[in-house]
Amino acid sequence: MSEETLPKQHQAHQPGKEHEMHPRPDYEPRYQGSGRLAGKVAAITGGDSGIGRATAVLFAREGAKVAFLYKDEEEDAAETERLIRNEGSEAFSMSGDVGDRKVCEQFIEQIIGQFGRLDILVNNAAEQHYQEQLTDISDEQLHRTYQTNIFGMFYITRAALPHMGKGSTIICTTSVTAYKGQDVLMDYATTKGAILAFVRALSGNLASKGIRVNGVAPGPIWTPLIPASFPAEQVASFGKNVPLGRPGQPNEVAPAMLFLACEDSSYMTGQILHPNGGTLVGG
C-alpha cells in the first residue's frame, strides 16, 4: 500500500490558501440544518478556510448570522461569504491581523454595528512554523506565533465579552499537540497548551455569568496551514500515524464546534473535545 495520504505540495505563504490545495478540503455539512443556532450571531477568527470555513458554513446552515476575520486570503474569504449566503444566512468578513489589538476591537465593533449582538465567539486563527531544532526558532518567529495564537485570542475575547451575556458561548481551537507535543512545532505546541489553560481559567471566571467556554483539540486536519507549514514530502504522509490512518477533514471538526455552540452542550464548560483520528490523550 502507498505510504502517501496526500499528493506532495507546499505553499510558501502563511496561513495558506485553500483554493490552491489539492485535493480541496471537505467543508460541506453532512446533514440538513435544524435551527440550532437560529437568531444567533457568530464571530469566527480564521473563518475564510479550513476548520473556520467548515464551521462558518455549518453555523449558517443552523441559522446563525456569521462574521469572520481573515488575514489576507481574499479569494478564499469571498468564497466563504458566498457559501454562507448560499445557506440563506447573512455574512460579514473583515481582513486584518488577529494579533493586532485594534483590528480585533474594530472587528467586534463592526459586528455589533451590523448585526446588533454577538452570541458565539470561535477563536480559531493560528499559525505554525516547522523547525527541527529549538535553536532554529528565531525571536521573530517566537513572537509572531504567540502574537497570533495567544495575544490575538486574548484581544478578541476581551473585546467581545462586553457584548456577550447569559447563554453566550466561547469556543477555542487548541490542538492534540497541547497534550502530546510536536517536536517540529515547539512554539506552536506551547501556544496550544496555553489555549488549553485559557479555556479552563476563563470558563471558571465566566460560569457565574452564564457564559460557557470550551475548546476543540483537532488532530491532523487537512487545512491550508498544512502545506503552508510542512515540507512537501511530509505533507504526502500527513495523518498516516493516527489510528484511523488518514488526515481528518474540516467538516469532521465543525460538528464539534456546533455542539459546543448550541444548547446541546448546555451542561458543559471548561471542556475539550478531541476529533483527532483516535489518538488517546488526557489519561
From TrEMBL:
Pfam families: adh_short_C2. Keywords: Oxidoreductase. GO terms for molecular function: oxidoreductase activity, acting on CH-OH group of donors. Residues 1-33 are annotated as: Disordered. Residues 15-29 have a biased composition (Basic and acidic residues). PROSITE patterns: ADH_SHORT. Belongs to the short-chain dehydrogenases/reductases (SDR) family. This is SDR family oxidoreductase. It comes from Chelativorans petroleitrophicus.
